[in-house]
Design goal:
globular, 104 residues, 25% strand, alpha+beta
């Protein structure tokens, strides 16, 4: 499974209840939408928002590409995920590594 391609095409990837979704968000009073990465974590039973900066693209596809590039940096260990809970951040990184291992 090429998780990056699946994420770009379908907007989400899920394995064993763990799920990453691409989304768009806007700040209050701002009409521009910015890319967001959401992570569903079964142990907490909650959705978490990755707070790493994702550059805004010129269109939807470029936004998704920028979000996937941030995920690639996190998976490679070049960037730490910014999430609201350290245990969730660890599970997030492990999930990305599992996704990468499944493509080999």
């Amino acid at each position: 499974m090429d998780w990056k391609k699946l994420l770009r095409e379908d907007g989400f990837v899920e394995v064993d209840g763990l799920r990453i979704e691409l989304s768009l968000d806007n700040t209050f009073m701002d009409l521009d939408y910015i890319p967001r990465v959401l992570f569903y974590d079964p142990p907490t039973g909650r959705w978490h928002v990755l707070r790493n900066p994702i550059p805004k693209g010129r269109g939807l596809e470029e936004n998704w590409d920028n979000a996937v590039e941030v995920l690639e940096r996190i998976a490679a260990g070049n960037e730490k995920p910014i999430l609201d809970d350290e245990a969730v951040a660890e599970r997030f990184v492990e999930f990305l590594k599992r996704l990468g291992d499944s493509t080999r």
